[in-house]
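Weekly modeling sync, notes
Attendees: S.R. (lead), two postdocs, one rotation student

Agenda item 3: backlog of single-chain predictions. S.R. asked that every request posted to the team notebook include the full sequence so nobody has to chase files. The rotation student volunteered to paste the first one in as an example of the format we agreed on. Action items at the bottom.

Example entry:
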Amino acid sequence: MRLMRDLQNPSLIVIKAGLFLLLALLASGILAVTELTSRGVLLLVIAIWASCRFYYFAFHAFQHYVDPSYRFSGLLSLISHLRKHHKDRKGN
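Predicted structure, as returned to the notebook:
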């Protein structure tokens, strides 16, 4: 069962990307202002970098190197796929 359809409208994809960027900038800005210490900024940079690397793994490395037959549609799809794959391996 799919919870959401794939977003295919190019204009909506661009709007969605822009909203994610705006959210990231707002959250980062608020954190940088409220935690304006070198430690707070460093932790923010590390969190952003780690999130980007996770995204790369979840949507590129997994599909190209772990399971080339898998086609993702989001994190919930990936989690569902991993659970199913884990159950299949446990049952064998």
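Discussion: group reviewed the output briefly. The mean pLDDT is 78.
Action items: rotation student to repeat for the remaining queue; S.R. to check formatting next week.
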